[in-house]
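Lay summary. Proteins are chains of building blocks that fold into shapes, and those shapes determine what they do. In this project we predict the shape from the chain. Here is one chain we studied, written as its sequence of building blocks.
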Amino acid sequence: MIFRTRIFITAALLCHLFIAPRLLTAQLLCPEPGPSVLRGENADVCAIQQEKEGSIYKLHHRGRIAFRSYIIWADEATYNSDTGDVEAEGHVLLEGSLNDEHIQATRGTYNVQSETGRFYHVIGAIGAKQHGGAYFLTTSNPFFFTGKVVDKTGTQQYVVHHGTLTSCEMPHPKWRFSSVRSVINIGGNAHIYLSTFRVYGIPILYFPFVTHPVERQPRHSGFLMPNFGTSNIKGTIFGDAFYWAISRNMDALIGAQIFSRRGWAEHGEFRVVPTQGSFIDMTYFGVQDRGAPKTKQDQGGQEVRLSAFDSFKGFRAAGNIDYLSSLLFRYAWAQIFTSLGSEVVSQGFVSKSSGGYSYNAWVQRYQDFLGFQSNQVITVQHLPSLEFSSVDRQFRESGFYWSLDTALEGLNRSQPPAAAGQPSFSTASLVGRFDFNPNVSLPLHLRGWSLRPQVGVRETLYTEGQQTTNSLGQTTVTQSAIDELVNRKAAEFSAELRPPSVERLFKKTIFGNKLKHVIEPRAVYRKVSGIDNFSNILRFDWRDILSDTNEVEYGIINRLYTKKESAPPEGCTPAGVPIAQSVAQSQAAPWQLEGQVEPENEPASPQLGPASTSGQVSVNPPEAAGQGAGAATNPCPPPATSHELITWEIAQKYFLDPTFGGALVNGQQNVFATTSDFDGIAFLRSPRHLSPLISRLRLVPGAIDFEWDVNYDFSVSRINFSSVSLGYRFGQWGLSGSETYLRGPIPLNPTTPDISHYARGLLSYGSPLKHGLSGAASMAFDEHNGFLQYFALQSTYNWNCCGITVDFRRFKISTVRNENQYRFMFSLANIGSFGNLTRRYRIY
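And here is the predicted shape, written in a compact code that computers can read:
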């Protein structure tokens, strides 16, 4: 039995030498040609068996012909060295060139001098190399094709007859174009004539003419893939766009969509990159609406956005222009829920900072739409503003510091009437404002205590003022602009006191982490006086809400730090410390480790030298071992860094002057600089001493980011504002959510409180580029009114050359919009996408 087994194994091993693939054996006998051969003009010929008759070479049993940057393999081949003609049969392979061309065929003819030929039953690739049955991409834009007959008509052109083209790996592509004739221009485009687009062999669309990019950085003009979808209020959606590659640094996109129930929309984008550090990007979207399905209300309009940036000679210039025809248009047609805001801001600035000074010139147009009517909008413009400011600068060698903030501006404001029957408010087309604010401070430090008193003056001159009138027997207040100079003067004093922080380092570790608790208290006294004409000041921005105040702000911050406790490996050397010095320090007295001088009456530290006879072990210096001085053979890893785990801030203000110098108007909402800087939530309707207590809590334990901001008002015993946010990332999973509660000041009618309460969330898995399955779900819920405002569910599955994304969205916005959208996108690598779900509308 053992003898028969040995005979069988011996026979199998011997037979294996004869049944090995002929291609593999041939390649072993004919090695790859060197670079000198591929660069030369003479062909290099190799085969297992070959014959030569004059200039004719006959290659048998897998031959190879290398010429210039190409290599031809074939089972049987004939090569004429005079004419350069090659006739190849059986497993023909042509590969090479800078474009990594790879042609497999059953037979073919080729001329190595003109680099032209014809191949039959071809599988080809451009921009990919094959090794071991797999393709390795050598460009970001690979290209595969098949054909019954393929002609190579030049060094950069192939003509494919009755074949297919795709960017998926062969031999089983997920999608392909089946065409009668295709012309492939390497470094340009593939022109595909009379083609059928197929997905998994199923015909989807017919195209008389299609182009496919073949170059490494494809940018060519042409029509993109059409997109289509459906909506319960828009109907069937169909559209297309034209891409215009104007130049290497400039392009444009122009497209349109048709809605079977509503009308049609046009959109466009223009991009320019003039230099490496600058750009211009402009988008346009407009709708020609036939009217909503039920109300027949025209909800059409336009929105234009432009962003630009540039830097030159120390200057920075940026611009952001946003034009919106109406708020109704945005709410009816916006595809992103987070863009449903009422504010529209357009601005541009030029800035330069040098030596602690800042020079700024900027223009701005701010709009806040109060309703869906076109005239219900507040408009504030800065045309233009020139600003000069400085950081705190020291007076020579003294302890005093000075700073300056000044601005010269032109402004205007207009807004609709506050109530029915009242006139609208409008200033002159250009109101001048000059603001001058120098400050002087003296920072003082003593044993951990810090005191920073500061004195400043502010003078602001307006070319136009405001007049407030209260009609007799009526509660309404009318405001109007008057043509007269208004001069506002103010004296400011503040003193900020910061006691030493209280710290404690806990000896006990938690999960291998050391803990450190730090308490940082602070107190600030602030007094502003001299503003006796607050009601005569026009309101444009933050500079105009300065009022008298006499207040104390106090707060405390708790911080909890964590640091991983890890001892360095035994015998390692700290970075930058020679081995000899490190060992000496480890054996030295404690005061030496602290950098102090060794006392004379103490025994000397152990000397580094030969081993002593007292039983102690000493270490030889590196030089004795043949190493350079200070060489380190086992450096220590860098020490662990601390991480701020918890931050909790609590603060409040006490107003010694509850009327703010008479600026407060009882019974209406008041906004002053001191309250907006502290809280951001308007809480003044009547005189009061205590501000709400604000709390800011943030926890960052590893991959979790949790934050809770709350505003509690003791005067009415309620929460005015609460915002909770959570972010978590674990592997491919991501979770984020927020809940916001806002209650305005006590209204005149307590039965109709001003309350906003919203919750939002996002759950995602993977990413749009992940291979395989990815998905995300997003929602926005109005908790106060009890309905779902927005919901989106999106899922993507990607293969190696294509992917499909399906999307469902629901909008429920007031009475303007109640829409269900169904979208999809089928993406083709290096081609484009079908459907109506564009990249800007992704939710993850």
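What the prediction tells us: The radius of gyration is 39 Å.
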